[in-house]
Write a structure and sequence with these properties.
The chain has seven helices and five strands, in the order αααααββββαβα. By secondary structure, the protein is an alpha+beta fold.
Length: 263
């Protein structure tokens, strides 16, 4: 995806999040974030938006603390969230292509990093807000979802702080049937190592089971489904039943029990 696409999608996701939050009300429970209500979701996401915008507008080249969550509620909190979201979008739109600032995962450029990261941050929390309504979720397009899977697997869980570890090496395959994207995640006592492959017509698993992948290597477990289903499942926003699982279910437990990204 292009940076402009990330920013445009970020703009829309923030509007959808705010609309769902307003409809649900500040005291509504968020099923996908146990213990949270809509007010907690707005405070957290609004804080992250302002924190990210600070790197873009101020050009911080080292880690910088966030400003904390506000003691706001109701309409005042919703207005605060919307203002911070607009500021983030406008900051990214106005930023130069050669922006220099701190990032915490590999990316083609700092501007590409923050545009993508805040799009996925906002999309996942928009899903949280919509889950409080108990109705259907707004669709995430296949290309966007695949891009989000890539950030999660190769970015977040390529970092030393990933807790997805196993004393016995395991291999997980993730196959998006509506794209040509297939990821192979090697789990060990070190940070996971993920390789993305392009498999034309990526829906065909080849051997009908989890055993061999494109290069003939064995895998212990495969998750397959639409890119959107995989994206939200890997972010623990949908249950494993939303995708197809073949092979050793204990590999997926390694993921679901240890993959949560916390602030």
């Amino acid at each position: 995806m292009e940076i402009t696409e990330h920013i445009a999608s970020l703009s829309e996701e923030g509007r959808l999040l705010a609309a769902a939050a307003q409809q649900a009300g500040p005291g509504a429970s968020v099923p996908t974030c146990p213990g949270w209500q809509i007010r907690h979701l707005l405070r957290h996401t609004g804080m992250v938006h302002r924190w990210a915008a600070g790197f873009v507008t101020e050009g911080y080249t080292t880690p910088h603390p966030d400003g904390g969550e506000p003691d706001l509620d109701g309409d005042e909190l919703l207005d605060w969230f919307r203002a911070g979201h607009r500021h983030l979008v406008r900051s990214l739109e106005a930023a130069p292509a050669d922006l220099e600032c701190w990032t915490f995962m590999p990316a083609p450029s700092p501007l590409a990093f923050w545009s993508r990261r805040q799009l996925n941050e906002t999309t996942v929390h928009r899903v949280d807000a919509e889950s409080a309504l108990g109705g259907p979720l707004t669709t995430v397009g296949a290309d966007r979802a695949a891009d989000g899977i890539d950030e999660l697997l190769t970015g977040f869980h390529g970092r030393p702080k990933s807790r997805v570890r196993s004393s016995v090496p395991r291999t997980l395959r993730v196959r998006a049937v509506d794209t040509d994207a297939v990821w192979t995640v090697r789990i060990s006592d070190a940070p996971p190592q993920t390789v993305r492959m392009t498999v034309p017509g990526g829906a065909d698993g080849g051997d009908g089971g989890p055993g061999t992948e494109g290069g003939g290597d064995r895998v212990d477990c495969e998750l397959s489904g639409t890119a959107e289903g995989l994206y939200l499942t890997l972010w623990n926003r949908l249950p494993l039943a939303a995708v197809t699982l073949r092979g050793d279910r204990s590999v997926t437990r390694l993921w679901t029990d240890n993959s949560a990204v916390t602030w």
